[in-house]
Amino acid sequence: MAALQDDMVGRNSVNLKIIIGMFNEDFTGVPAVVDLFLELYNAKVPVDLVIDHSVQVDVARSENAVQANMELEFQRNKERFAFLKWGSNAFHNMLVVPPGSGIVHQVNLEYLARVVFNNEGILYPDSVVGTDSHTTMIDGLGVAGWGVGGIEAEAAMLGQPMSMVLPGVVGFKLSGKLRNGVTATDLVLTVTQMLRKHGVVGKFVEFYGEGIGELPLADRATIANMSRNMEQPWDSSLWIMLHCNT
């Protein structure tokens, strides 16, 4: 797993102009729509807002559980949903995916991502930033995507470039294919363990090798989904701090 060696890596920042597109879940999406409403601005890039964070489970273990929970959700969030529906009609470049459609990063993978799009006769590779920590799931489809904060998301919506430190790149070679009985979960847990030991905080991880072609989309998406968890959040310094405070 050799990392890209470059004097620019890890020190210089670059500005990324987002051509297309971004998505929000409703937790951060509602404040963004409110801000657009206050200034009457249209989003400069296509924005998909997926309502999935307001779901609560009140009814379970019955045949009508899904329908009952959906009805209760609409009762609780009637004004909220009405506002978002108004926003989808009032602003250009905004699509609101109604509640009950699925989890935001799953909806993006199955319905929203275009992989390649045509803009005035020029083909561009699809890319996305989102306010969901598992936005990276779309990388399994070959679309560059990663999570951002609410302020960064609003800036991108208004056409502002995103600034990021130029990351190093860690290559992870996959060869062969999974044996019978070995699942994508087994694979991703092993990959996560290896990358945590290697250290990939603040870096891109690129998977390559003939083994990629042996993995169906569902398995590649599983690995990409877990990339948020491949960082190493625990070290000796944190342990010492917690020990001293107890």
UniProtKB/TrEMBL annotation:
The keyword Metal-binding applies. One of its GO terms (molecular function) is metal ion binding. Keywords: Iron, Iron-sulfur, Metal-binding. Residues 35-228 form the Aconitase/3-isopropylmalate dehydratase large subunit alpha/beta/alpha domain. InterPro entries: Acnase/IPM_dHydase_lsu_aba_1/3, Acoase/IPM_deHydtase_lsu_aba, Aconitase/IRP2, Aconitase_4Fe-4S_dom. The keyword GTP-binding does not apply. This is Aconitase/3-isopropylmalate dehydratase large subunit alpha/beta/alpha domain-containing protein. The lineage of its organism: Eukaryota, Viridiplantae, Streptophyta, Embryophyta, Tracheophyta.
